[in-house]
């Protein structure tokens, strides 16, 4: 059934993979006795990595399989971190089911994103990995922004982790029970999309360290949760005709703030951000005269 | 002189560009009467995008030209934002001087990163664009982390903007003077690597809005500053033999915090982050009993 969703070009791309790895349709077209091109003007390889964004290379009615991506993302966390988890799981699945240009990309590209980009504590790597792939796919820039915003807002308020792996990874070692036993792991909504805040808050609530096996088990499952949300967003985008993602499914957390702190205001401090404001700027910490309800 | 730094493979890659755009050395090698491969087992294209990281494709003694990259980054800001500015300037320069695989990449890939990833206010896009390229180049993962950490720490404390373009972009429109006239633009150190904090703080200090032409002129110049710092880091990495980047050139801003809030501690809240702590957690805001000097 999966193959029925794929066009001829994608089937050829899969055939080229079967012929021995990283070989593209362009190579098959450009070489051999039936080639119509000369040796001095080879045919550009199609689909190319540069032929971006890539939704044009994805057949109508194609959908990613969330269960396969989530389980792969969970395990890939243990071989390269959170960004590698979501990035490699999505790209591997797209490589196997769509083919080029996804099978021409470096599968390990996301390893740098672990721990909020090489452990700096910036954007959660599982988000960054997923967003790199959303950026690859969505040619509609409004849809791309809406998908990314929904993913970030959802992340801020979702009590992680939820995903239960089909097979627990051999590298996993925990003191908490992630499946309802005791001592029980407590899921926590991060309140922010940053690795630093997300990890520190969960560790504090669970009285474990950021270097613990429990933290790793949490982040591996969180990576699967984020990859699953990304699949849902991408599938919704691909299923729309014409392809689009029109409405962000999580309410604006900053409705009370944005009315005064607009991007056009130079009087009230001007803010250009959709990150949840009150996590880092709690109402209780604002000056006494600061309005708490308006607009 | 620039050509003297390039190996044969890179010269061939440049030749292939001259033959009509996106054509790779692999295509030239794999096709034609002198090919030793059969039509059913084409030679993999080399260097490929998947053959990552890419420092192996960069000739010894190669160095990027900071002035060219900075001016390109400044102007590219106006055609696609901060992440596009740094990413496209670096990739375009590497494409023109190194060739494959850089000339096989989508030049517009960084546009999604504008405004802290599609205006969400996350990591400054000029940083993200530069870090995507550092990740492409540095095969030494310790060096990659050190370069990224230095870039982020430097960003937090650098009074932006400094860069003065050779030619002011036609899209630029300001009310402040960026060249010493009046009213004078005030450079500001962001204190954080996030777009939201960086932009908001600068706008507040300069009494302009985040939607103003002044803000855009600031961010365009900041993009050039960041691209220039990235060039310095990459050039230092490439010049080392063996290639390495061993020491972060900006002091750890969290030395007072890290001794207690270790990644191994479950008693003191455990923190896994190198972001500057006191920007968001000022000492004055901590509980009265909190140590301010130790360890």
What does this protein structure show overall?
The first copy, chain A, has 295 residues and is an all-alpha fold. The first copy, chain A, is 42% helix and 0% strand. Chain A is built from ten helices and no strands. Chain A has helices spanning 8-18, 25-30, 66-80, 82-97, 125-137, 141-157, 195-206, 213-239, 255-258, 277-280. The first copy, chain A, is globular and about 60 Å long. The N and C termini of chain A lie far apart (52 Å). The model of chain A is unreliable at 1-39 (pLDDT under 50). The interface between A and B is large, with 81 and 83 residues.
Q: Summarize the biggest pleated sheet of chain A.
A: none
Low-confidence stretches of chain A: 1-39
- Quaternary state of this entry equals homodimer
Helical stretch count of chain A? 10
The backbone outline of chain A, from C-alpha atoms, is globular
Distance between the termini of chain A: 52 Å
**Biggest interface and which pair forms it?**
A-B, 81 and 83 residues
Arithmetic mean of pLDDT of chain A:
86
Strand content of chain A: under 5%
| Range of helix content of chain A | 40-55%
Q: What letter string, H or E per element, gives the SSE order of chain A?
A: HHHHHHHHHH
Radius of gyration of chain A: 22 Å
């Amino acid at each position: 059934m999966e193959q029925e969703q794929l066009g001829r070009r994608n089937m050829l791309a899969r055939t080229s993979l079967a012929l021995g790895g990283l070989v593209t349709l362009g190579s098959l077209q450009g070489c051999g006795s039936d080639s119509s091109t000369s040796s001095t003007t080879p045919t550009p390889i199609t689909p190319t990595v540069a032929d971006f964004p890539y939704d044009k290379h994805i057949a109508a009615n194609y959908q990613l399989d969330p269960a396969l991506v989530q389980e792969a993302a969970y395990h890939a966390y243990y071989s390269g971190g959170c960004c590698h988890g979501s990035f490699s799981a999505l790209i591997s699945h797209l490589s196997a089911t769509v083919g080029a240009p996804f099978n021409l990309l470096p599968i390990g590209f996301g390893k740098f994103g672990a721990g909020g980009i090489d452990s700096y504590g910036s954007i959660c790597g599982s988000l960054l990995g997923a967003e790199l792939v959303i950026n690859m796919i969505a040619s509609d820039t409004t849809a791309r922004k809406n998908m990314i915003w929904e993913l970030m807002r959802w992340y801020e308020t979702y009590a992680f982790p939820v995903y239960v792996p089909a097979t627990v990874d051999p590298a996993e070692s925990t003191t908490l029970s992630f499946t309802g036993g005791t001592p029980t792991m407590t899921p926590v909504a991060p309140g922010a999309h940053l690795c630093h805040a997300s990890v520190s808050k969960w560790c504090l609530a669970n009285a474990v360290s950021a270097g613990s096996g429990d933290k790793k088990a949490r982040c591996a499952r969180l990576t699967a949760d984020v990859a699953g949300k990304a699949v849902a967003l991408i599938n919704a985008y691909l299923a729309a005709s014409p392809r689009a993602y029109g409405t962000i499914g999580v309410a604006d957390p900053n409705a009370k703030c944005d009315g005064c702190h607009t991007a056009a205001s130079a009087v009230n401090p001007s803010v250009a951000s959709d990150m949840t404001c009150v996590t880092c700027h709690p109402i209780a910490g604002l000056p006494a005269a600061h309005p708490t309800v308006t607009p």
